Structures are given as C-alpha cells and as structure tokens.
Amino acid sequence: MPQKEKLEPLKILFIRRDNVGDLICTTPAIRAARRKFPEAKIGILVNTYNAAVIANNPDIDEVYIYEKAKHAPGRSRLSVWWSNLRVLFKIRKERHDFAIGCGSYSPRVSRYTYMTGAKVRIGFSENRTFMYDICIEEPARTLHEVEKTFTLLSPLGIDGKPDDLIVMPDAMELDYAGNFIKEHIKYPDKPLIAVCISARIHKRWQQEKFIDLIQKISDERIADILLLWAPGPKDHPAFPGDDDLAHVMIKHFQDKIIAYPTKTLGALICAIACSDLVLTTDAGSLHISAALKKTTLALMPKKNSQSWYPWRTRHTVITSNDAVKNIRVEDVYNSIKKMLSDSL
Predict the structure, then answer these.
(1) Where are the chain's structural domains?
(2) What is the largest distance, in Å, between two alpha-carbon atoms of the chain?
(3) CA-CA-CA-CA torsion for 248, 251, 256, 259, nearest 10 degrees?
(4) What is the CA radius of gyration of the chain?
(5) 192 phi, psi to nearest 5 deg
(6) Can you tell me the distance from the alpha carbon of 196 to that of 185, in angstroms, rounded to the nearest whole number?
(7) What share of residues in the chain are helix, strand, coil (percent, to 5)?
(8) What residues pair up with 318 in beta bridges, in sequence order?
(9) How far apart, in whole angstroms, are the C-alpha atoms of residue 260 and residue 21?
(10) What is 11-156's CATH topology?
(11) For domain 171-343, which architecture applies?
C-alpha cells in the first residue's frame, strides 16, 4: 500500500512592529488562530522593544525579533540593517502560508509583510497594492484595537468576538517582585496601588499632580503605593527614563511609598501582577494591567479612549478633550476611592 504523503502544518506569521500596547492587543487574534488551527506553526515578527510582552505566550511557536536603528545607538545603521536582513532571510526560508500585517496601513508594515515571502499576505489598505494579496478596508466605525486587529483574520475563516489579552509573567521575576514588595509594605491589610508614571511626553500627567494624589492617599491611609517608572535619564536617545521625576517623588515621600524601578518590561509586568489597582496613563502599562486582569484606572486623551481603553477588565477611564495634563487630581482620587470600595 502506498504511504500517504504527510502534510506540513499550516504556517501563519503575524507582524507587529510597533509599541507594547499594540502587540498586547494582537494576542487575542493569535489565540483565535491557535484555536482554529491547533496544529499550525504560528510565528510573529516583533522588535527588541516590545518582544518581552509575548515571552512564554503558549500560542506562539517562534518569535522573530528585529531591531530599530533608534534602539541601537551604539551600533551603525549598516550593522542593524544586516542583522534585520538575516531575520528576514530566516522568515522567508520558512515559506509561511499566511503573513498578517497588523496595525493601520503604513508603507513600512506593508513592506515588511511583502518581504516575508508568504504565499498569502494580508493587511489593511484602502487601495489595491501588490504588497498584499488580500487588502482589507479598515473598519468605518470606531473599534477597539483588539477588535480592529481581529478583523484581519476573516480570510482565514475566523470571526466572532476576540477573547482576553495575554501576558505571561516570568515566575522567577514574579517571586522577586513579590518578595521585594512584601519586605517594604507599609499597610499589609490595605490594597496595593501601582502608580505608573512613565509615558510619552504628550500622554504624561504632571509631577505635582502625582505628588498631590499620593499625598491624599497617604494621609487617608487607604492603600499602599507602589511607584513604578522606567529608569534612566530623560535625554537617553533610545530609551528615555524617568529617574529625575521618580527621585523627586521618593525624596518627597521618603518611606511612605514603595519605589520600584522597572528596568525591563518583564519587571514592569511582574510589579503590576503583584498590585491590586493600577493607575496609568495611555501607555503600555495600561494594556499590561488589562491583560493581567487588574482593576485599572486609566488617564487618557478622549480621542484615544474608545480604541485603547483597558480591554476586558474592570476599569475606569478618565478623559480630557485635549491633554491628560488637564485631568484633575480630585477626579482621580475620587475614582480610586470608589473603585477600592466597590471591589477591593
């Protein structure tokens, strides 16, 4: 009897080259592809900046990592480009059946999708382009980024509702964060609020407002405060940090807060995992918090709130029509008290 030829598993590649939150918002689509094609080989192309948020993701078989030149200030552009070219050669060798360019249309996303050499290339585009075999028009109505990304799966026969975000804390780092917090906790019987102060400049809340808010919480002793920030100088060319801001706050409050610099994304994930409530602006920490099912209070520009709010977790969003800096301390404090009294 002639033996049947063994069919190779379907190979699907996701491409998500932007920021931390964008990548986290792609994880429900990856989970849906895994459920639809349990035997498939699923890969993803990410960058050195956001890759840590998909570490240990059970739905992904292979992670391809490229580097943006601005994230490698000590290396020449030629060195960075050569390294990225090797990553693309490795991807092309796999001969993926599908490559999905995630995120709104951009020439760069479509170019990366095209260069994968996949048999079928899918992405958002209003006009026909040779970069994609299947061009999908971006939804006319406002959707959350999770839902928008999910629509890219329709050519694979996947529809319905996207599920939860997925972020997997590292066990060893989680133990370290938990032990550090336990050693420095002030009120063991009170909730722990993670206050994430790092964000892009236009999404920041002012230093004096953070100080005023924490002072109110401290005076009332309604919770412990875990201060989280990206360490480093603010003028770092690749990874601007908030040491200056954090040190002002640490000096002001001394031992009244728990100061925890998050040197890596993994450290940030684990610190948030140890918290009860997370206060964050419109940054990657918002989506990490949502993925970990934490009660989340998000300070957001109104224009972003419908597409980037905390997905499928208990949350409150406080918006401002123009800039986050205009959100009042009193509104944030009252929301924290209500959220704590409702569920914690």
Answers:
(1) 11-156, 171-343
(2) 82
(3) 60
(4) 22
(5) -110, 120
(6) 17
(7) 45, 20, 40
(8) 299
(9) 21
(10) Rossmann fold (3.40.50)
(11) 3-Layer(aba) Sandwich (3.40)
Question: How far apart are the C-alpha atoms of 80 and 67, rounded to whole Å?
Answer: 7
Token output for 187: 């009120």
Kindly report the number of other CB atoms within 10 A of residue 179's CB atom.
11
Distance between CA atoms of 45 and 111, rounded to whole angstroms? 13
Residue 265 is which amino acid? L
Give the span between the Cα atoms of 32 and 331, in whole angstroms. Answer: 38
β-pairing verdict for 11-15 and 41-47: parallel
Question: To 10 degrees, what angle do helices 207-220 and 329-343 make?
Answer: 40
pLDDT tens digit at each of 344 positions of the chain: 455 455 789 999 999 988 999 999 999 999 999 999 999 999 999 999 999 999 999 999 999 999 977 777 777 888 889 999 999 999 999 999 999 999 999 999 999 999 999 999 999 998 888 999 999 999 999 999 999 999 999 999 999 999 999 999 999 999 999 999 999 999 999 999 999 999 987 789 999 999 999 999 999 999 999 999 999 998 876 678 999 999 999 999 999 999 999 999 999 999 999 999 999 999 999 999 999 999 999 999 999 999 999 999 999 999 999 889 999 999 999 999 999 999 75
CB 271 within 8 A of CB 167: no
**Cα dihedral value 201, 207, 209, 212, nearest 10:** 160
Q: Are both 11-156 and 171-343 of the same fold?
A: yes
Q: Is the pTM of this model over 0.90?
A: yes
The tokens of 119 are what? 């048999």
For the chain, what's the residue count? 344
